[in-house]
Every structure is written in structure tokens, then in C-alpha cells.
């Protein structure tokens, strides 16, 4: 009898404890999901902008000048959940806060919303251009350490500022900030001009010696349009150079397989454009007979001819000539691109990493590489095979 | 010792024992007065009594009549009081002819005819179900299993109900340990009334409190035959249209008799569907609780926002919402089971349509919840054997509890707990969670007899 009474007591207490939910138990409707995160630097009053670099017209906003200790502005894009799936758009709000540190800014932002901030769906983290040109290590450190930010998030540099980019609500966007995820992650568009970087890779490449990160550049191109077709090269803390759309595509061509893109080649005054079906690239570090280190790139691919401006009838001979011309074009362009990247002093392709992987002298290899790097030479060998789909007359 | 007083005494004793019963009959037969019969009217076939006992008694002399009675198959000459009592209670007629006592078989048997299987319906294949009469059941199985190795051992269980229980097995294939264990457990049963296979299942299983059934209870003779051929032991009972099969493994409960009939790939697919159904029905409500309250990061953004949006008007925490809705579903199932067939559809209409629709519109539960509850209910019914389907119905609450207290980790740990519990279970000494069980009998090419 006593035994049963005890059993009932346990069951009763168990059931009642389920009813007392406590304050840690937060249902999904009591959380505000942060879908995109942006960080900008705010001009400090004392320095009056002299410590800044170029490209900061849009930032600062002027209104927060005078608060000297404030240096960053954190903007969050929050989704307002909509239960009716037939409704076309999910609404979003952007809130921002100026503060001296990121955690502090997030704390302050908590009082601007009625729900618990939840970063678990934050899949885009943008650095304002001015911030990225200064130092992104504080932000990446916070991002890696914060447990609810998934490290499969995408990173990018926003121009003119992260806040302004987050404020853009593209018309095609059904879920807030999904535009950025779809395009930066290439889940939707597969534009060859977008360089996508996961945040775990960004963090690794920042700290890795001999391999530097690359980030896509997200530009505000109008009231409700975004443009992502450029990229920036970083050293181990800040942006060092910017790539044009063509260079961004070249970067993708050298780092990805099966890039979906097309190129043009001019031959005998006629422009042929061909669509890549497959491509590959590899590089070797070879000591030249002059004692200098040469980065030997071998690239290639298969393509189909899409059109030519003069409606020339295709024959095997012409196709071989087009292939040859295209290969030569590639060799020229890629070499030019590699020299430009080398000139900025960063190493997004991991030449240094390859060098240290190849050499056995662990103690001195990095210093050696620092000595070798400025003297690097490049050679490119391209092999593009252009085919033609055929035609029935 | 003179026999006559003894016989006289036996008769008197029997009359004494039976007096007071409403349907007790005592008659003198023939002209000599040497023949007396005692029987219970409700248990005997009155036509048999009249045609084969009463009428001939006036047509022949006592000696001839005695021989005549004894010539019937099933007739017995006896001196044992206990036996006489037992047989009279079964529907035999006690006949005293001069100095000797005879028992004459005039049992009246009322049973429902062979109907088609209801609880384990299949698409193609035999439809017969076991009846409530053991003779017919043995006949149904014998007809499908025409082997001289088929052994049938009768015994009686139940102090009051005196239920005939039959143990069937194939002598050349059966696992001896299991058979011994079965005989031992059956002989240890001591109850007054035994009238369902579920009770028998309870009495012969290892543990008193357990959640998973360790023996298959089936109403299909073809399943019994299939298992006999695999070297298992089947226990049939009189007055019950179900057979208990032992030993059983977990997988047996997910085998429908269709699987043999279907093409191999189709059969495997059906089995896969059943296991997916099991997984869904057990975990879906728990996952909903975990995802909405602890780990929304696992879902895609769209679904997270959809759940968040549809939950916006729901005042209670997710697990209360889930338990509320699941209870509603259980009531619905239970109600449509108990309702008379004619008003059965009303319950589904009222419960399913109106309640579901109204609950979401009133904001008591979210849209997603309705989908989950219906998915759970439907996937529960893909489990072919009822005992397991009921187990699974209970099991999901256990997972919900842990999901509500520990989130996703709770689900993982409690699932591991279930697997560990299943691994520890034994069915008649055989591991219960054996995924590829070795058959007790490894036949050449596994061909079925008969």
C-alpha cells in the first residue's frame, strides 16, 4: 500500500513538473530568429575619419558621432514568422545597435525585441566594407565561439555598409535574407562570379599560414536589388584587394571543378562563345633553372560552342583552331590574373601551404617561403577542347 | 467387492452433485428399468439423445443395448467418479446399464463458422481465420500442414473454465529447448478462467511488466503453418480464435503474410515501409517537441518560421499541445473501435474533420501539429500485428516525455534505451532483437511442406 502511494506521488510530481516549464524552455514562437548578421565600423569622433581607408561614404550616418568609445554597429535582420504558408512574403525587420563590442551590442539589441534572440538560423554574416578593411578578427572570433551560430554560415563583405545591404528587401525574396543564402551558397543561382566562403573556412584560412581567405562582395545596387559579382582578397585580418567580376570568375575557374560559365574568344575577327561543360586545374611548384620558384598551372576543360557572330559553318578544322585560340586566351588571362594576385601580396590559392607541405624543414620553411614569395614566377598551360553540337541542314 | 452397490452409489453421487442445476436431466430408459441416463441438457445435442439413446432403448434388450452403446466411437466404460463428473460437464451422457457405467459423446457445439480474417487482413492470399472451435482450428492447420511429423499435444488449463489447450509443433523441426520451456510454463499456469489468447500470452511470457509482446498472437492459420515450418511452437485454445506462436523475434511483428506473396523487391519495399512507419509514429511527436522547444536550428528556415508562425497563437508549450492532440487522436481511435458499425463513420467525421479544423482555427493547436498527428495515426496502422501496434501507440509518450525534458538529446538517449531494452529481451530463451535469426530448422532450400 505504501509502495503504491509512493509510486503515485512520483507520478504526480513528475506530471506537475512538466507543467512548470521554467524560463529555459523557450518554444519556437518565443524566439526571434536572426537570419542575417551585419557589422560595420562607426567613425570615431576623435580620429575624425583620418584612420579610415577608402570606400566609406555610406557609413557612420553621423548621428552617433560624439560617443567616442563606440566603434562598431551591429545590425540584425529578424524574421517575423507568418503561419499562413499561402501568404506570399515573410516580413522582416532590421534592428541595429552601436556599441563598443559585439557581445555588448547583442545584449543591447535584446531589449529592442520582445523575443529571445536566436542565432541558430543565422546563415549569413556580412562585414561592412570599412570594417573589413580594418580588422575582422574580433568578429570571426566571436562568430566561431558563439555556440548557436552554425559554422556553415556564409560570409561576405557588404558595400557600402552591412546595415544598408541588410535593409534591402529584394522582390524575389520569400523568406527574409534568403536571397543572400541562395546566392552566396549557390543553392539557387549558380553564377560563376560568386565566390562563396563558409565561415569555418574563413576562420581557418585567416589563421592558416600560406593560405588566405577570399570573400564575396555584396553590393547594394538599388532600392531593392543586390549585386554579387565581385570578390575581395584578405590577408590574415583585413581586405587587401578587390577582384573584378572577370577576376572573380577566373578565381572560381582555378579553384572549382565543373564551373558553369561561358567565355568568348576572338579569332579572325569573329567572336566565338563557348559554354564550359567541365574544367579542371592544378598547379605545381617547380624550381626553375634560374633557381627561382615557378608556379606551374595546368588548366583545361571541355566546352561546347554556343554561337559565333558570323554564322560560320563549323568544321573540325575550325573547331581545332577555335580550341587553340581559346587555350591561348586562357593562358594569357590566367597568367595576368595570377600576377595581379601575386602583386597584392596575398595567397588565396594556398601556394605557401603547398610549399610547406612539400618541404621537410618544418622549422624554417615559413621563413623560406617569405623569402621565396616575392620572387615567384608563373607559367600557365591551358588545354580547352571546344566541341560543336552538330547541325542538320 | 460387489460392483452393483458401487455403480448405484456412483449414480446417486452424480445426482447429488448435479441437483439444483437448471438443465439437469435424469431419465430411466427401456422397459426393464435397468437403464438410466444422466446429462446436462444445455451441453448436449437433443437430437442425438433422442435418436441414438432413447429410441433404441425400447427396440432391443438390455444386453444388445449395452453393446450398441459401447460401439459408438467416443463411448467409454468407466468407474472413475472424477472422470464421470468432468465428462458430464463437457456434454457427455452418463448411462448406467445394469452394473456398468458408460459415457456417451453427445456434445453440442455452437461456434461461428470459418470467417475471413479481420484483424490481419491481406490483399491476396488465403482469407480463412481461426474459429472458436479447436477441432476446426486443428483441421484448418492440418489441412495446410500435411506432415506426419506434426504433433498435437492436448492439455487442460483453467480450474473453472477447463479450457482445452493444444500445443502444436513439427517434431522434426522444433527447437527442443523451446518446446520444453513451453510445456513447463503451460503446466505451471494456475488460473480459474482462461478465455483469450492474450491472457495465455501473459501467463507464458518471461516478465510480468513489459511493453513489447514476446509471442505472436495471430488469427491466421497460414501464419501458424508458416511458423510451424520454421520450427516454432504454436499454442491453440478452445473457444478462442487466436493462436499463440513462440518464440518470436521483433521482426516477426512486422511481417505480413503478404510478404511471401509479393515479388521479392516489392515485399522488401513493403517491409521497409513498415519500419519507416514504426520510426515515424514513435518519433514524430517527440521530434516536434524537440524542434519547437529546444533545437529549431535543425530544421530549414522556412519550416522553422512556418512552425513559429502557426504556433504564434498557441498559448501552451509544445508538449502540452502534442499530448493534448495525441490524446484526442487516441480517443478517436478508441471511439471508432467501440462504436457500433452503423455510426462508426460519424466519429471520424466529427473528430477528424470538425475537431481538427476547429482546433487550428481557434488557435489551440498549430497547423503543423494536425499534420503530425494524422501522420502518426496513419503510420501506426501499417504495423501488421495488433499487439505491436498497441505497444507502439504507448511507446511514443515515453519519447515525448524525454523530448520535453531534454530535447533532441532526450530522444537520442531514450531511443538508445529502447534498443538496449529490446536487446535484453528474450522470447523463450531466444534473443528478441535478432535481426537475422537463425531458423530452428534449416531445410533444404527452405521449401514449405504441403
List keywords for this structure.
heterodimer; A: 393 residues; alpha/beta; GMP Synthetase, Chain A, domain 3; 2 domains; nine-stranded mixed β-sheet; four-stranded mixed β-sheet; 11 helices; 13 strands; B: 450 residues; alpha+beta; 3 domains; five-stranded antiparallel β-sheet; 16 helices; 50% helix; disordered C terminus
- Strand arrangement within the widest β-sheet of chain B reads 1-2-4-5-3
Number of strands of chain A: 13
Number of domains of chain B: 3
- Most residues in contact: chain pair: A-B, 27 and 28 residues
Proportion of helical residues of chain A? 25-40%
Total strand count of chain B, please?
12
User: What would you call the structural class of chain B?
Assistant: alpha+beta
In total, the number of domains of chain A comes to 2
Tally of alpha and pi helices of chain A: 11
- Secondary-structure-derived class of chain A: alpha/beta
Helix content of chain B: 40-55%
- Reading the helices and strands of chain A in chain order gives HEEEHEEHHEHHHEEEHEEEHHHE
Q: Please tell me how large the radius of gyration of chain B is.
A: 29 Å
Give the averaged pLDDT of chain B, no decimals: 84
Write down the oligomeric state.
heterodimer
In terms of DSSP E residues, the strand content of chain A is 25-35%
Specify the overall morphology of chain A: globular
Amino acid at each position: 500500500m505504501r509502495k503504491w502511494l509512493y509510486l503515485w506521488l512520483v507520478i504526480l510530481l513528475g506530471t506537475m513538473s512538466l507543467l512548470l516549464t521554467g524560463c529555459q524552455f523557450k518554444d519556437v514562437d518565443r524566439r526571434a530568429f536572426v537570419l542575417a548578421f551585419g557589422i560595420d565600423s562607426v567613425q570615431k569622433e576623435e580620429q575624425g575619419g583620418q584612420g579610415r581607408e577608402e570606400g566609406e561614404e555610406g557609413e557612420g550616418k553621423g548621428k552617433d558621432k560624439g560617443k567616442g568609445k563606440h566603434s562598431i554597429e551591429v545590425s540584425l535582420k529578424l524574421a517575423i514568422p507568418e503561419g499562413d504558408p499561402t501568404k506570399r512574403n515573410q516580413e522582416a525587420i532590421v534592428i541595429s545597435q552601436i556599441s563598443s563590442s559585439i557581445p555588448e551590442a547583442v545584449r543591447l539589441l535584446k531589449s529592442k525585441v520582445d523575443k529571445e534572440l536566436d542565432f541558430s538560423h543565422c546563415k549569413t554574416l556580412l562585414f561592412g566594407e570599412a570594417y573589413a578593411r580594418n580588422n575582422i578578427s574580433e568578429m570571426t572570433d566571436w562568430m566561431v565561439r558563439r555556440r548557436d551560430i552554425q559554422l556553415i554560415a556564409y560570409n561576405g563583405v557588404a558595400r557600402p555598409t552591412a546595415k544598408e545591404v541588410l535593409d534591402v528587401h529584394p522582390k524575389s525574396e520569400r523568406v527574409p535574407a534568403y536571397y543572400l543564402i541562395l546566392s552566396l551558397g549557390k543553392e539557387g543561382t549558380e553564377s560563376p562570379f560568386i565566390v562563396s566562403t563558409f565561415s569555418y573556412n574563413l576562420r581557418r584560412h585567416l589563421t592558416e599560414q600560406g593560405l588566405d581567405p577570399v570573400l564575396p562582395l555584396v553590393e547594394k545596387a538599388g532600392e531593392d536589388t543586390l549585386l554579387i559579382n565581385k570578390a575581395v582578397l584578405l590577408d590574415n585580418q583585413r581586405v587587401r584587394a578587390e577582384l573584378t567580376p572577370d577576376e572573380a570568375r577566373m578565381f572560381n575557374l582555378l579553384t572549382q571543378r565543373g564551373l558553369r560559365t561561358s567565355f568568348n574568344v576572338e579569332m579572325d575577327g569573329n567572336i566565338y562563345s563557348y559554354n564550359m561543360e567541365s574544367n579542371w586545374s592544378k598547379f605545381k611548384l617547380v624550381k626553375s633553372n634560374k633557381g627561382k620558384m615557378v608556379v606551374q598551372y595546368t588548366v583545361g576543360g571541355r566546352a561546347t560552342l554556343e554561337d559565333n557572330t558570323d554564322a560560320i559553318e563549323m568544321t573540325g578544322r575550325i573547331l581545332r583552331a577555335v580550341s587553340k585560340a581559346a587555350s591561348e586566351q586562357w593562358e594569357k588571362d590566367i597568367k595576368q590574373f595570377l600576377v595581379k594576385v601575386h602583386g597584392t601580396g596575398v595567397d588565396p590559392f594556398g601556394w605557401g601551404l603547398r610549399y610547406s607541405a612539400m618541404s621537410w624543414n618544418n622549422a624554417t620553411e615559413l621563413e623560406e617561403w617569405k623569402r621565396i614569395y616575392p620572387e615567384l614566377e608563373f607559367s600557365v598551360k591551358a588545354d580547352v577542347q571546344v566541341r560543336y553540337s552538330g547541325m542538320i541542314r | 467387492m460387489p460392483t452393483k452397490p458401487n455403480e448405484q452409489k456412483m449414480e446417486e453421487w452424480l445426482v447429488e452433485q448435479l441437483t439444483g442445476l437448471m438443465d439437469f436431466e435424469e431419465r430411466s430408459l427401456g422397459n426393464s428399468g435397468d437403464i438410466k441416463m444422466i446429462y446436462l441438457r444445455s451441453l448436449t445435442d437433443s437430437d442425438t439423445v433422442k435418436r441414438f439413446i432413447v429410441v433404441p432403448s425400447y427396440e432391443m434388450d438390455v444386453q444388445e443395448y449395452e453393446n450398441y452403446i459401447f460401439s459408438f466411437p467416443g463411448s467409454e466404460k468407466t468407474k472413475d467418479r472424477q472422470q464421470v463428473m468432468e465428462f458430464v460437464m463437457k456434454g457427455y451422457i452418463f448411462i448406467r446399464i445394469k452394473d456398468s457405467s458408460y459415457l456417451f459423446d453427445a456434445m453440442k457445439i455452437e461456434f461461428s463458422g470459418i470467417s475471413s480474417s479481420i484483424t490481419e487482413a491481406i490483399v491476396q492470399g488465403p482469407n480463412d481465420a481461426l474459429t472458436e472451435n479447436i477441432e476446426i482450428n486443428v483441421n484448418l492447420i492440418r489441412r495446410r500442414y500435411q506432415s506426419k511429423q506434426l504433433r498435437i499435444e492436448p492439455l487442460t488449463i483453467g480450474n473453472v473454465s477447463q479450457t482445452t489447450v493444444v500445443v502444436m509443433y513439427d517434431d522434426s523441426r522444433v527447437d527442443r529447448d523451446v518446446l520444453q520451456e513451453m510445456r513447463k510454463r503451460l503446466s505451471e499456469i494456475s488460473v480459474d478462467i482462461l478465455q483469450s489468447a492474450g491472457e495465455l500470452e501473459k501467463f507464458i511470457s518471461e516478465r510480468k511488466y513489459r511493453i513489447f509482446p514476446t509471442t505472436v498472437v495471430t488469427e491466421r492459420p497460414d501464419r501458424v503453418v508458416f511458423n510451424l515450418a520454421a520450427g516454432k511452437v504454436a499454442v491453440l485454445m478452445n473457444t478462442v480464435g487466436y493462436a499463440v506462436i513462440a518464440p518470436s523475434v521483433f521482426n516477426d511483428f512486422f511481417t505480413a503474410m503478404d510478404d511471401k506473396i509479393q515479388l521479392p523487391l516489392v515485399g522488401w519495399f513493403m517491409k521497409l515501409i513498415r519500419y519507416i512507419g514504426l520510426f515515424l509514429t514513435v518519433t514524430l511527436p517527440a521530434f516536434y517537441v524537440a524542434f519547437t522547444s529546444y533545437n529549431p536550428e535543425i530544421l530549414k528556415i522556412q519550416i522553422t518560421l512556418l512552425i513559429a508562425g502557426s504556433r504564434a497563437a498557441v498559448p501552451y508549450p509544445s508538449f502540452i499541445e502534442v499530448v493534448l492532440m495525441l490524446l484526442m487522436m487516441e480517443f478517436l481511435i478508441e471511439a471508432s473501435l467501440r462504436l457500433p458499425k452503423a455510426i462508426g463513420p460519424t466519429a471520424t467525421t466529427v473528430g477528424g474533420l470538425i475537431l481538427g479544423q476547429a482546433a487550428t482555427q481557434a488557435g489551440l493547436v498549430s497547423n503543423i501539429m494536425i499534420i503530425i498527428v494524422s501522420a502518426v495515426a496513419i503510420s501506426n496502422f501499417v504495423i501488421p500485428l495488433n499487439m505491436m501496434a498497441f505497444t507502439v501507440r504507448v511507446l511514443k509518450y515515453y519519447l515525448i516525455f524525454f523530448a520535453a525534458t531534454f530535447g533532441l538529446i532526450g530522444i537520442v538517449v531514450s531511443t538508445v534505451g529502447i534498443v538496449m531494452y529490446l536487446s535484453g529481451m528474450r522470447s523463450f530463451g531466444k534473443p528478441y532483437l535478432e535481426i537475422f535469426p537463425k531458423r530452428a530448422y534449416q531445410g533444404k532450400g527452405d521449401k514449405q511442406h504441403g
